[in-house]
Amino acid sequence: MNIVNKITLRQLKQNKRRTLVTIIGVIISVAMVTAVAVLATSFQDFMKQVTIASDGEWHVEYANTPANQLPTIQEDEQTDELVVTNDLGYAEFDGAERESKPYLFFKEMNEAGFDLFPVQLTEGRLPQSSGEVLINENILADTKTDLGIGTTFTVDIGQRVALNSEQPLGQETSIQYEDKKALEKLKPKQTKTFTVVGTMESTIWERSWSPGYTILHYLDPSTLNEGDKVNSIAKVNNVNSSIYDNAEHLAEQTGAEEIHYHDSLLRYYGVTDHSNLKKTFFSLIVILMLIIMIGSISLIYNAFAISVSERSKHLGMLSSIGATKRQKRNSVFFEGGVIGAISIPIGILSGIAGIAATFMFINPIIQEVANVDQKLSVVVTPISLVSAVVVSAVTILISSYLPARKASKLTAMDAIRQTQDVKLTGKAVKTSKLVRKMFGMEAEIGLKNLKRNKKRYKATVFSLVISIILFLTVSFFTDNIKKSLELTQADINYDIKLSGFEDVSADDIKPYTQLEGVTASTFIRTIYLSASVEEKKVPEVVKDYKQRPLDNGKYSYSVNLYAMDDESFRKYAGEIGKKTDDMIEADQPSAILVNEITYNDQSSGRVIETEGILTNVNETLTLHSIRGETEQKGLGEIEIAALTDQLPMGITSTSRPGGVDLITSEQMLETFLSNQKPEHARNTLYLNSSDPMKTQEAIEEIKPSHIRAYNVEQSRQQQERMLLFMSVFTYGFIALISAISIANIFNTISTSIAIRKREFAMLKSVGMTPKGFNKMINYESIFYGFKALIYGLPISIACMGAIYVSLRHTFTYGFALPWISILYVIIAIFIIVGSTMLYSIRKIKKQNIIEGLRQENL
Amino acid sequence: MSILEINGLSKSYGTGETAVKALDNVSFSVEKGEFIAIIGPSGSGKSTLLHLLGGVDRPSEGNVMVDHTDIYQLNETQLAIFRRRQIGLIYQFYNLIPVLTVEENMTLPLLLDQHAVDHQQFHDIVEALGLTGRLHHLPNQLSGGQQQRVSIGRALISNPALMLADEPTGNLDSKNSNEIIELLKMFNKTLNQTLIVITHDEQIALQADRVLSIEDGRIAKDEVIRP
Lengths: 858, 227
What we know:
The complex is a heterodimer.
Chain A: H1 3-14, H2 16-55, E1 60-66, H3 70-75, E2 79-92, E3 103-109, H4 111-116, E4 121-124, E5 132-136, H5 138-142, E6 152-162, E7 168-169, E8 177-178, E9 181-182, E10 184-200, E11 212-218, E12 229-236, H6 242-254, E13 258-261, H7 263-266, H8 277-320, H9 325-370, H10 382-409, H11 412-417, H12 433-439, H13 441-452, H14 454-490, E14 496-500, H15 506-509, E15 518-533, H16 540-546, E16 555-564, H17 566-575, H18 581-585, E17 590-594, E18 596-600, E19 607-611, E20 620-625, E21 633-644, E22 659-665, H19 666-673, E23 681-689, H20 692-702, E24 707-711, H21 712-755, H22 757-765, H23 770-806, H24 819-846, H25 849-854
Parallel strand pairs in A: 3-11, 5-10, 16-22, 17-21
Antiparallel strand pairs in A: 1-12, 1-13, 2-3, 2-12, 4-10, 5-11, 6-7, 6-10, 8-9, 14-23, 14-24, 15-16, 15-20, 15-23, 17-22, 18-19, 20-21
Chain B: E1 2-13, E2 20-31, E3 35-39, H1 46-54, E4 61-66, E5 69-70, H2 76-86, E6 87-90, H3 102-112, H4 119-129, H5 144-156, E7 162-166, H6 174-190, E8 195-198, H7 202-205, E9 210-215, E10 218-224
Parallel strand pairs in B: 3-8, 3-9, 6-7, 7-8
Antiparallel strand pairs in B: 1-2, 1-4, 4-5, 9-10
Helix pairs in contact in B: 3-5, 5-6
GO molecular function (chain A): transmembrane transporter activity
Family (chain A): Belongs to the ABC-4 integral membrane protein family.
Protein name (chain A): Lipoprotein release ABC transporter permease
């Protein structure tokens, strides 16, 4: 090893404490960079797993491939596994109990299909030969049909087509009805016999509105005829961007009619450019890494700058006996190399370990929040490792560049003259007279010390400011998300909401009020109607918004008519100060009009509050069913019994110009409808329970698949976990960045005090008392903290304002400063600065004055 | 044959009204093997002169020829290498590197050059300086006189053309001072080493071959004591 490096190494060893703090700082920063890189790859992998679990592990689909061409695709070197699949079609389901689900939907796949697509067997076994099927377990849960395992049944299978256009319809299209008349029919093509060998959970080929229960049949490709066309779906060996060219080539070769790519999966391989995901993801990572780099550069730069100024005398001396510029400069780079060689490997290992530990902690949370079975597991790719090393090395290089240049310029004369780092600025340092008057001479010296040594003072203040800004903005952000969550939950006073599509009848859901633990319930029937309103009753803002009236000069309003069970209605009416007896007994049906609307005007960006309709109590509204503007069917008139701005529990306001909400009772609705059946009606039941989670379980056990249960408690818990999940990362990030800053502050302050040993001894020798000395040091700490806060707080508040403005539409409340966090910051800053000062000064306090005076500057 | 020639050397600090002329048009030459003492009051410019001779500062005007090389025509790297090989500097405060051992401090100029150490020569110098047995000590484990001997050793190790000493005894008691001067004289005689010493001490000055008195940046007297 050359002699200059040897000197560097020994000096590092001699300054153990500073070297250690620097190494720890660099380790933290390398660990963070590694964590970000590993997090990125792990998340990518996690998303792959989740997508595979929900949509299947496939990459390319060749739609309508001629059956005789299947071997071509199968044998292609890029094909790993090939699913052969075919939609057989629909059959009437004799035992169907739901109007919206009258069919059985038959799909067939080969063995690979059962393997690669998410088919969750619940009972029995997978089909293994032609004729064997798996059925959706909901068939057994929703109906009384006996299609149990072992049953053999024969059906006529064919296509669903629209009555008027003969257009084929699939699972994405719900059953087509109008006024109880079917708008579609089934065209049987073949008769088939199947044997049930197992049941499965509902599949990805079945939506909640799909008209057919899925039945999966085993397809033996060898039984296909020459002319048959099937869909072939390939899982590719090695996913890269060549997949597109190869697929097109294969499609051409085999005569497949269409190619579909599994974009939602491919994007996590980074091969598709169809989404901006890659860009967003990448820029997020770059931003995080930049923040880390800024934090660490200020630390490492400081450490090297300190080291160079401590060594300036030796460097100058080396220069006088003939060390070249390069030798001096390289000594700093060598120092960086040594620090890096120790810190980078440890940092990478601890980064990976940290992420592994974090995953262990958050996996249960993420599984709950995202409702998936997949786990985040640590995935380290060569690229993530290399990028972590490169980013860290660049960070160290950048940080050491300026100190190295300074080192190379140190001359023998600097050493001989004993000039040192504390360079007095040319002119006298001015401090306000106020300082001396208010705090005394000690404070003035303290302030002068800071001002005189500007560079280092600035570096310390800078790192403090960065920590303040990071902490405050991130906590502002998470605070706001928390607040939004609380707000969305604030008005909810029910525990469980049961709802469904139009085929869920009142009789379907009312029995749930009898469940154990249910303490109260509200039943609401919602009907979507329209009303035509005379021009004079339409407020100007609504006219502006709707722009033109109907042909008859009236304006069309959309109306949500809510009918509550009689008891709940009485309670609600009581709350808004309306007696219901005369309402319910009157012949003319009446309703309470919620007549206040609040909406965000797109053009002006302002929140506008207005009346929905200019009307009065006892006036009437003419209601129609909705079927296009021309073809409205009158339902009758409803009297307005009261006006209010208060909605009953569970109902969220429509809040848009040209829309109003009407609240009535079930009984009055019956009178109003008088046996007409409205087109769009939904039934909802709100339950309160003494034990929501237990009631939820009871509901899940008995409810058919088309009734949805929304558990407020559960979703609140989920959101809280989501928040916790975010907090783990954000606060983890802040904690580490702060740790780097603290290391930086520690290095800076303790060194500046060490350098000033002689000065302190001098001050003591001219009679500064220990008390006065403490006072001076305390003031110095206070000035550091004060300055950092003076810059940090306004910048942080500006950042918060920017966040608020850019996310304004998601905030439903005014801008509020996070006072508690600000208070924490102020306290923390003074504690950090103060304790570092105290620590560093401890030794100096004990030192003998003469020793200190004699001390050559280090 | 002159080993050192100085022509019209001037050095000013600062500019305009505040300019201070530390050296004003100084010229002289030194023969190989000469022992010269430079004396003068504080602030007369003797340290500036020494630094200019040693190639650690740069003159405002004039040139310094060491062994027929105009050292201020060299670029910085060349000058550094020149210092390493041709100049031995001895300071009042020793200026040893505290983390290096005595041996490493002494051989530093050679090590900077990645030059092998001539063990015989090294051994001779160590013995002459009386540092045998101290080679693996660190500077702060030595007395002031011993530290100064190490710095003399360091100045000698590369057989420089010039040995320059700035108040080498300024920080030492009289016993140690005498020893240091005796050592310097010995190397001057036995190795025919050219030696220029700045001193306040008239006793030391009188032991030189020639004494230069400097006042206000000029040579006031140039006396040959021993021809």
